[in-house]
Every structure is written in structure tokens, then in C-alpha cells.
């Protein structure tokens, strides 16, 4: 499946809930948010119907996000249903890790292929300051379990923020030195609380410089090691000498990767988002609940994806900018 700019769309991110058991300062207000009504979010059966239509058109990878996806009841049922969907090759979850240890065996039995653990600090006090919740022990338990779990691919996501956790950049990288984990640094994006509260991200070039000083040459791996290779994801990976894993950099602001974007997003309410920062898309819930046939659903999705915007405009406050916060779109 291609859009009008000949990009191959094969990756779907599904936000299954806007709820979260943490209150990270750059993501969600301290008092939380007004929850969506249960009737307004897609049922698992509706999600699977969307995915079946998308899989027939070329979607191969699905990632479950939130909010925090593991807080939604019976999420294992959805993982199993996705793995059983013809055409879907990979099912992954991005999680804050609070509930992961208690659910990991069930998730793996259902067929989960990969986990992205979002973790910005290895300091318990700082974790509480960032997340406003005393859940550090549960997350560390999940991390320890992931370091010895050979059945799934493991990535870690860190958002370096000036004056908050930028002093831990090398300490977090050491996890990838000791274990076969991809440690990824994600540029802070001007969305939601990160925008309104004035947080400043650390430029990825500065992150690279610190890592180079600490670990030596950052040798490109994967697609980054082959000149002229077309990336299939937003992260550029490197591997210092002696590392069991790799380090990745996702800098949507400094180095746009829109030309190779291969993803679309499905919000908890069933809106098919074509770009993280754009309000362009398709209300699949209206189609699903309005009696659309599978053929009509697939046709509407194909027409929407064809119109995927050429690039994001984070630097501009345009009329097409999506006003949803990050926890409402799944990142």
C-alpha cells in the first residue's frame, strides 16, 4: 500500500486507551485527564476489523500504545487476535513497564514479538519526580526480566530533557553495552504538556557527542551502515565497540524522516491518523458502526492513506495541526 508520495505504508500504531497509571510531566497533567467513555472507544472486535482491512492492503507490523496499553482489560486477547490476523507478521507493545512483569508470560503465550520499555531515568527519586508515581520498583523488575528474556526483541525509549534527566544519558546507554537491547533516545516533541510547560529537549547531536566521549566511535549498524539505504523506521542505530546491543536516535525535529515514513495511527476512538502532528485522517468508528461493508471500509481507508501528508510541521502552528495530546494519539 502506497500513499501519493510513493511511501510504502506497512506499520500501524494502535492506541487502545487514553488512560495511564503514570503522570509523566511532559505527557500528562498532574490531575490526569477526563477519561473517554467506554462506549466511545473501539472494541477489540472493531480494532481487529480495522486491522484485517489494513493487513489486506499491506500493513505487516502492529504496535499497541496508549496511554498505557497494559491498563486496558484483557489486552492479551487483542494481542492474540492480532497475531492470528492473516498478513500481520509482528505485534509489539510500547509500555511504561509498571504492569509488565505480572503480564509478560501471558503476553508471550499470546504471541507478542517485541516490547518497547519507556524509561527516562534509573534513579528512583527522579523517576517519582518525572512520573509523579511511586512505581519505580515495578518498572525495574520489568527491566530485569527483559534483560534475560530471549523470546522477544527489546528496545528502551528515553526522552532526554534539559535539567531533568540529561545527566543520565551515558548511564542509560550502558544497559545496551551489557545486554542485547536497543537503547533509543527520542527528541522531545512540542506536543501537549511538553509544549505548554516549556520543557526543553536535548538536541540529538549533543546526545551523540556525550555518548562518543564516553564510549568512543559510534559505528553505524543496520541500514545506517549502508550508504544510500532507505530507512524502514525513524531510528538511526549505532554500536560502540564492546556493546551487546545498540544505541538509536530518533530526532524528528532536527532531522525529519518524513520522506521515509511508513506508518499510520489508530486512536482509541477509531480515528485513523495519517501523521502524528496533523488532523488529517478517517473516522473508522463511524464506518464500523454505520453498517459499512468490509469492502467499503477498505476502500475508505485506502483513499485516506493515499492523502497522507508529505511531512509534519512541528515548527508551524497551522490550522491542520492536531490538538490532541501525546497520550491521546499513542506517540
From TrEMBL:
UniProt-listed GO biological process terms: Mo-molybdopterin cofactor biosynthetic process
Cofactor(s) listed in the protein's UniProt record: [4Fe-4S] cluster
Sites where the protein binds GTP: 13, 63, 94, 155, 263-265
Domain Radical SAM core as annotated: residue spans: 4-229
Catalytic activity: GTP + AH2 + S-adenosyl-L-methionine = (8S)-3',8-cyclo-7,8-dihydroguanosine 5'-triphosphate + 5'-deoxyadenosine + L-methionine + A + H(+)
Pathway note: Cofactor biosynthesis; molybdopterin biosynthesis
Task of the protein: Catalyzes the cyclization of GTP to (8S)-3',8-cyclo-7,8-dihydroguanosine 5'-triphosphate.
Protein name: GTP 3',8-cyclase
Taxonomic lineage from the root: Bacteria, Bacillati, Bacillota, Negativicutes, Selenomonadales
